[in-house]
Design a protein that fits this description.
mainly alpha, 13 helices, 76% helix
Amino acid sequence: MLAAVGLFAIVDVALKVLVQWYPPMQVSFLRAATSLPVVLLPLLFNRRWRELRTSRPGFHLLRGLLGVASLLAYVQALQELSLSNMYAIFLSAPLIVAALSVALLKEQVDWHRWLGIGAGLLGVLIILRPGAGAIGLGGLAALAAALCYALIAISMRALGRTDTTASMVWWYLVAMAIVTGVLAAPGWVALDLGHAFWIVLLGVVGAAAQHTLTEAFRYAPASAVAPFEYTSLLWGVGFDLVLWGVLPSPLVLAGGAVVIGGGLYVIHCERKVKS
């Protein structure tokens, strides 16, 4: 999960760059379509294409539609917010995942995990406080993306009981590429060769990120894995500073410390349980 968070942060940088020149729907299509060859070619080369079989196509379609909704909302949020502020709102997702894992997966979430997750949410609220009166469309889009992502995370945990990681990643990307491709076609903007680096980066890193994320939810309880996403704040603040020269306020830093502390507490509790 730590690897997935770091890789997705790189994907977010590419998305934020590309959305300056292309419509959000087209960028969403590129995100899915460019990852498909990266997922398929190693399976064909190693003659492991049978891993793409699935007995639950309807479930994959539902995940794909949720993925489209999440990605479109996410790209919209990236257009209007800095990475660190967008992550601060999006990081309500672990709490949603924990709640849904109890209701939908019948997983047990003890008070230690709730305490850590609650601390992370408190940190998010601290970060949001400076601009609480001006969240706007970008903030609402980030919240919508968080809800859709939580549902996708729950579906990954459920599908992991019957399908391979390759199958889950492949059909998720296929569904997203088809839906976003159809919707993007009327307003398609010709691709600029000068943007090839960002498009290739989107595909390669996006596939790796999706694979590691799926593995994380496949092998661990959703409520235990989700808090690791709080580390995305570190990536968001770092990329904002290095690439766009945006410095976080003291409240953002304080909130980030609380968020990360909550995540570390959950990790500590998990280690104690396993030992």
